[in-house]
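Q: Predict the assembly, please.
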Amino acid sequence: MQFRDQTRRFLAGQLSDAEFLPLRLQNGLYIQRLAPMLRVAIPYGMLSSTQMRKLAFIADHFDKGYGHLTTRQNIQFNWPALADVPDILAHLAEVEMHAIQTSGNCIRNTTTDQFAGVAVDEVDDARAYCEIIRQWSTFHPEFAFLPRKFKIAVCGTRQDQAATQVHDIGLYLLKNENNEIGFRVLVGGGLGRTPVIGSEIKAFLPQEHLLSYLDAILRVYNREGRRDNKYKARIKILVRETGTQAFKDKVEKEWALLKDGPLTLTNAELKRCRGFFHDPDYKALPADSSTLETALNTDVLFASWYEQNTHAHKKPGYAIVTICVKKTGFAPGDLDSDQMRFIADLAERYSFGEMRITHTQNLVLADVEKNELYSLWQALKTHDLEADNLGLLSDMICCPGGDFCSLANAKSIPVAEAIQRRFSAQQLRDIGQLSLNISGCMNACGHHHVGNIGILGVDKKGEEYFQISLGGSSDHNTALGKIVGPSFSQDEVPEVIEKIVNVYQQHKTTGENFINTYNRLGLEPFKEALYGNKRDDHSTD
Amino acid sequence: MTTPLIKNGALVDDNWVLVNTTTGVDDIAILQDQDVIVPLSIWLTEQQLIRSRPAKTAVWLNSHETPEAIAESLGTLPLVALNFPEFKDGRPFSSARELRQRFAYQGEIRAIGDVLRDQLFFMQRCGFDAFALRDDQDVDNALRAFNDFRHVYQPAIDQPLPLFRRR
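A: Predicted assembly structure:
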């Protein structure tokens, strides 16, 4: 409603471009290279079959029949018309969805590990806290015009799949010696032009103080974050320029005023929010399934998919399934409306009508009975959704790139496809776990800094070139990749990736994955393979 | 030129004259019978002059200036104005909240500068209670802004309790 009036005033000339800009951004609307782009909020990446069908409807009626999964666990549409956007928002509202705060200089969608609530070994279900943060941050009156965008992640799993350490605020759930729940608080992480791993400013924040502490951090940032230079406006720069200890002191001083105030979480509220994420009606099942065993022994393609794309579930007899949206020949993370409807149907039939978007641009069915896995896999095949490359080199994070985005230096999607085509399925399995992330420009939407292999599109005198970095990682041991040397042309990239993989395969010990081999060897052997003896003095290009 | 001023949900006459940073002390002397809002620099350096004036004097803070600078005067100040050099500079939101929360300031907090219709709701929540709209703003439409949303999650100045304590 509010945005309908704002759009009306903009189209009537009563709002200037500059004044409409933050209003449309707060409603998820960008103006892109070819058309506006609308980003729909999917809190902590979870959505229902009903909501997915509505997204398919929007893709058909207001877009070109598809949507794109984002690294903030959202979905974006690349082709809506501005005048249609209020109608799209009205459609979204029918299924309790919106596009609020998916862009603009405000607190964005809070993300978490896609296995929250079903992982075997988690401290606590992070989704309840994401929901608490979502409510606190929605239309927060004081923090609607921050120096820059602000991203928060909460992680309660042992194997962090939320890239928590490269968020403006990263929260790790943990228990203290008295078994009380709280958070380890990191601040000032981020990617973009200046990649930084977050610094700890609180080793243990008791859970009831979550919101007052966040309020304190945000107030310090809102007051003191740089506003003179867009590229120095993120909180990571403020933390670096202030010093971690001094920044922490400022937060503590602000927090002293807010602590134990009305924002203190009550037991009733914690219980209520946990209640949103209660377990579905799981059946009592045996841990093993003979149906599954038989299928694994008779169908090698299924067995390969099972090995790559399913994970252990906290309940016996269930598995977590990831549908990898990275089939070669399809833009990474793109779903067409038929696939959306089909996945909605599958979720209803196999997984309690719920699905989750991952920050690696895939989809999760979190609660599938092991008995049903073979049947599910056969169904996925009918809609090109059976890709068995989850976590492999071809399961890339990739931004929309220069095909769509007005910021990009280079087109990332064709590069992704050329790399995917270079390797056979068998080669990919032999290479094993390897993350490859591609960004079309240094804004780093494709998270290239934290890919085991990172690819960055750069502009060299009007030509598209690609800079390669190695050694990045976004899990509990987050690391930023190191640039290997001068950049390459688009045609050279697939061969470069192959050479890098060859070095790994020559040097790996049994069972050692790419990142561990790299950490053992360092950059040199890879440099040698790519540039030979040409010792370059301009290796950071 | 008159800037439309909204107070208590209605358009009101404004008795204050805003003095900008380029105005000299001599000009203020000429305005001696006029209630004025002076910049922080004048407020801090010209206390003697200010105390001798027959009319009232208030102060305005730019977005990079903090309420701490006038903490000692807040007990007697009838009005503090907070300037938005551009509407997307969000610092005055925090300043207003600090004035109300940290300093328990009870007087008028006036939004001045690039004050636009679509920010009024947030300003009100942060403790602003007077709004000097930018000249080109449609006043009738602006008056509706205070009802943009019916429910709010967060505690703020207008509603001290978060929604979860009001269920």
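Strands of chain B lie at 5-7, 10-12, 17-18, 36-39, 57-61, 79-84, 108-113, 130-132. The interface with chain A takes residues 66, 87-91, 93-95, 97, 101-102, 116, 118-119, 121-123, 125-126, 138, 141, 148-149, 152-156, 160-165, 167 of chain B (CB under 8 Å).
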